[in-house]
TrEMBL record:
It holds the Pfam family NB-ARC. The gene is RGA-14. It comes from the Eukaryota. Keywords: Plant defense. One of its GO terms (molecular function) is ADP binding. Residues 1-138 form the NB-ARC domain. One of its GO terms (biological process) is defense response. This is Disease resistance-like protein.
Length: 162
């Protein structure tokens, strides 16, 4: 959420002519990540037939001539960053924002970084938020669960998600 707010902020959009957002998750291919980045920075490029070396070279050329903010979202493992990072190494106008559930990923990418770790909601706060999202009532901030068993199912979902 914080990364998305930064990415969509007007000052950021004015400062960085190039913006790219790519989700990595647990299963990914480096080529697909680089294709997504290049497709967002240069929509006119046909990346579908480019090989990894060609993608690396093309992204490097784009980043040499254009300031860019690239968000690498939901990266799980340190080794995953190692696979992706060669495209960013020589580019001074490029800023990379990583999101991860694993603090070690951030520290592996940059030992000097100061990771932002938002606090989790309490169970009670989670329940209030869950009710607002799952059972909204139009024209009111209140929510009401009126079906039998729905509260129990909702509570189980919250316990499962932590």
């Amino acid at each position: 959420t914080l990364a998305r707010k930064v990415f969509n902020h007007e000052k950021i959009k004015r400062h960085f002519p190039g913006l790219a957002w790519v989700c990595v998750s647990q299963q990914f291919e480096r080529k697909c990540v680089w294709q997504t980045i290049l497709r967002q920075l240069r929509p006119e490029c046909d990346v579908s037939k480019m090989m990894v070396d060609e993608l690396l070279e093309k992204i490097a050329r784009v980043l040499e001539t254009q300031k860019a903010l690239i968000v690498i979202d939901d990266i799980w493992r340190e080794g995953d960053w190692d696979l992706i990072k060669p495209v960013f190494l020589l580019n001074k106008g490029c800023k990379v924002l990583l999101t991860s559930r694993n603090e070690r990923v951030a520290l592996h990418a940059d030992e000097q970084c100061n990771p932002i770790k938002p606090e989790c909601l309490t169970f009670e706060e989670s329940w209030v938020l869950f009710q607002r999202m799952a059972f909204p009532i139009k024209d009111t901030a209140e929510c009401k669960i009126d079906q039998v068993g729905m509260k129990e199912i909702g509570m189980e979902m919250l316990k499962h998600c932590g």
